[in-house]
Write the structure tokens for this entry.
Amino acid sequence: DQQVKQNSPSLSVQEGRISILNCDYTNSMFDYFLWYKKYPAEGPTFLISISSIKDKNEDGRFTVFLNKSAKHLSLHIVPSQPGDSAVYFCAASAYGANSKLTFGKGITLSVRP
Amino acid sequence: AAGVIQSPRHLIKEKRETATLKCYPIPRHDTVYWYQQGPGQDPQFLISFYEKMQSDKGSIPDRFSAQQFSDYHSELNMSSLELGDSALYFCASSRSETGQRLYGYTFGSGTRLTVV
């Protein structure tokens, strides 16, 4: 049972435009949500996160939105840059779960110059 | 800054052989996690250790075992290897303190295991 779902396997965006990466979850016990970015031959790197008490967190070009009622979050990247091309994983953790992260399958973002 | 170090980066083993993967966490990080990522799959949680004690267990086969040593490095031991064990194995570490959950944990570059 996939508790964190990234239903779109890939996204292609023109440089300078907005990239919107979506993520859905089913476990209502999740209270922290994180986005990781992964380049080939490297481990995932932390990008941005949000706790369930907020509905928006912004860090430079990256903004994460959380809609708890819909169990949906999204990552917005604006403006998109070619260096943003990577695989993006959505992850979530539940209180008391030893901070274990549950990952989605990832989405491959390609930013065209 | 020091990162999570994993060794080896690549490993090729034959079926039924044994493999040992090593992980050296970031200094002062007290929790280590192991994840397995198959081709085109999401990283699957295997096992974690907090202060050298197993803290959580995921979908880790009985053929696998892991431990964390006194210097906090961890080893994942895999026996009777099967073709399906071919995957990327990531180790990650974190420091368990208030607010740390907001920053996730730091991953190593992974060990690519190929079973032939």
Remarks:
- The radius of gyration of chain A is 13 Å.
- The first strand of chain A starts at residue 4 and ends at 5.
- Chain A touches chain B through 26 residues (CB under 8 Å).
- Chain A has a mean pLDDT of 93.
